[in-house]
UniProtKB/TrEMBL annotation:
Xref: SUPFAM superfamilies: GAF domain-like, Winged helix' DNA-binding domain
Tagged with keyword Transcription regulation: yes
IclR-ED domain mapped to chain residues: 73-254
Organism: Pseudomonas fluorescens (strain ATCC BAA-477 / NRRL B-23932 / Pf-5)
Organismal lineage: Bacteria, Pseudomonadati, Pseudomonadota, Gammaproteobacteria, Pseudomonadales
Name listed for the protein in its UniProt record: Transcriptional regulator, IclR family
Alphabetical keyword list: DNA-binding, Transcription, Transcription regulation
Amino acid sequence: MSEDNIKRRAKGLDRAFDILDFLKEVGQPLRPNDIAKGIGGPKSTVYELVASLLERRVLEPVGQEGHVYLGRQLYFLGQAHLRHFDLSREADQALQEIVRQTQETAQMCLLNGRKYTVALMKEGERHFRISSNIGENAPIPWTASGRLLLGHLSDGQIVDLIDERDFVLPDGERLPLETFLKQIRQATEDGFFSFDSVADTFTHCFAAPVRDEHGVCICTLCIVAPRADAQRNYQQYRRVLIDSANRLARRIND
């Protein structure tokens, strides 16, 4: 295969992932023409890729008007991934134990490119339940986990990673870069970070790092609790979360 053919195929693969990422973010079926507009791609290329993805059941047709959405093949691929991905399997058990001890919602969170995402979640065992959309991207500075997930990066790498617009919080206020960097360094030293959620006026978020054998935070375990309960049980939730994150790190690094 010539170098030009390799480059064309690689570009086509990038476009295919752009299509899948865009549909995940939008969260609803779309026509190929709308997908092309959304990702800024040539219509002819997008139509061709959509046809190929439909043939492989990576996308599936929805309704009678040409809409497509993420297909069941992605589900099977995801299940295959989970069967062989120790972190997810072990983290699921850790989240169940956190919920058992605190009754609060527990999450495992990761970086997803330049964003933050909730990868796994167990809802709390209480009448008032808190939940998040798994796989939905959020600006890193909006999150407690973000202060831990970036701890291995230099200040310059952090500035390059985060979109400048992501420092604007939901209330319209801008988080100063200096404050964010200081919080990252302190959270990394403490092995813990918590704050009142900037995206929800009723909850408090706790996060603890799960570190690999090199000390890099590969994910976080989190508790999301009503603010009053978080204040009343702060030390217990902090202890449970840190202990759970450390146990998970030992299991996956053994």
